[in-house]
Every structure is written in C-alpha cells, then in structure tokens.
Amino acid sequence: MAFLVAVGAAEQGRQTMMFLTKEAVRPALHGIATGVACEGCPPLADLVQRYQAAGGSFLVCPICFTAKGLDETRLIKAATIGGTVPMWQWIGDEGATTFSY
Predict the structure, then answer these.
(1) How far apart are CA 82 and CA 54, in angstroms?
(2) Domain edges within the chain
(3) What gap in Å lies between CA 75 and CA 31, rounded to an integer?
C-alpha cells in the first residue's frame, strides 16, 4: 500500500520521499523489489520504477542498513542513506503530509 500511495503522489507532481527503516530498507537495493502483493496488484518492481521515473526518492535509515550488513553500492538510483536529520531538512519549515505503514 505504501508504494501505491507514494507512486500516486509522485506521479501527480508532489515532492515525495519514502523513509525506509527496518526490513523495508531492502527494496532500495537492486534486484530485491520483485514481489506481487496480490492477484491483480501491480508488481513491486513496476511501482519502484514508476516512483523513480516520477521523481520520488528513498531515504534509507543508516542504522537499519548497516545492521543488516548491506552493500551501499547496490542502492537503486533514487535511494540515499540518511537518517532523521536529512529527513527533517527535506521536510523543511512548511510541514509535510505523512503516511506510515
């Protein structure tokens, strides 16, 4: 659901960033986002591609990423490692609409 909401926002031209934590850091790696949530649902790989093409970005929790021993060179193009400080810098002073899944 999080990817559907994020794709919808990005494709409508809204600045969109997903902050990935815990096991959710893995879809930010090449070749990992390959599943299909349900019959009739778009493949996760397609959603990630559409999200990136629409200018969406991923901020990947450095603590979660490092704890899993993952390789930063495998990050997809729209993903960067960063914690709460860069997240708040991205949000800025205007506030932001958030969804948590």
Answers:
(1) 21
(2) 2-91
(3) 10
34 close to 45: Cβ distance less than 8 angstroms:
yes
Q: What is the CATH number of domain 2-91?
A: 3.40.1260.10
Return contacts of 11-15, CB within 8 angstroms, 24+ apart. Answer: 11/50, 11/54, 13/54, 15/55
C-alpha 76/C-alpha 13 separation (Å) is: 21
Is 90 exceeded by the pLDDT of residue 76?
yes
Ranges 3-17, 25-39, 75-89: which has the least confidence: 25-39
Is the whole-model pTM more than 0.85?
A: yes
Given this model, what pLDDT does residue 30 score? Answer: 94
Nearest CA among 7, 12, 44 for reference residue 28: 44
Contact 57, 64 (CB under 8 A): no
Tell me, rounded to whole angstroms, the distance of Cα 65 from its chain centroid: 13
> Pairing mode, if any, of strands 17-20 and 79-81?
unpaired
